[in-house]
């Protein structure tokens, strides 16, 4: 079948409809692609926002756990009497009681004046230490370890042994076999002078 010029007017309508359909199809594809790109961009932004919120939530939960842990540690220190003014009379009574309980020989002690330890600027609490010089006679080394263990367990302060020297005594009529000289820091914590309460 051959097309003639007489057939052109009849085909114009079909040709126009075809061109219109192609144009509408191209516009639909373009709008669809634009809509897909916009949806992907929105999805990426939403995912990024969700990840940021998840990160913040994890940090908040981590900080909350850390605060609970530090609060429990602080409550433990308060319960042990570490927080607040130092209790020198109580320390001396404890030392005497330990000496009597373990029958420690020639127990002598001397407490130096309290000194401030380094504290971070702006910290709400400050640390203080009082160094105690302890001298005692020992039947054996275990007497010293019992003394230090009991101090750590019962003292209303943190106990830090700075040094202990132990040496054998010359044989004579003495009961003690060894002599010990120790320096022990009794550490307490209290609110800083400029801290907000």
List keywords for this structure.
51% helix; alpha+beta; Alpha-Beta Plaits; 3 helices; 2 domains; 197 residues; 5-stranded antiparallel sheet
Give a description of the structure:
The chain is of the alpha+beta class and 197 residues long. The protein has helices at residues 8-80, 88-101, 141-154; strands at 105-111, 115-116, 125-138, 158-168, 178-191. Strands 1, 2, 3, 4 and 5 form a 5-stranded antiparallel sheet that branches. It is rod-shaped and about 145 Å long.
CATH fold annotation of the largest domain: Alpha-Beta Plaits
Described by strand count, sense and barrel closure, the largest sheet is: 5 strands, antiparallel
Radius of gyration over C-alpha positions, nearest whole angstrom? 42 Å
| Arithmetic mean of pLDDT | 87
Identify the CATH homologous superfamily of the largest domain: Ribosomal protein S6/Translation elongation factor EF1B
User: Strand percentage, roughly?
Assistant: 15-25%
Q: How many beta strands in the DSSP annotation?
A: 5
State the end-to-end distance. Answer: 102 Å
- If classified by CATH, what would the architecture of the largest domain be? 2-Layer Sandwich
Approximate helicity band:
40-55%
Order of helices and strands: HHEEEHEE
CATH class of the largest domain: Alpha Beta
Poorly predicted runs are none
Bulk shape: rod-shaped
Q: Estimate nothing, just give the exact number of structural domains.
A: 2
* Count, helices: 3
Which structural class is indicated by helix and strand composition?
alpha+beta
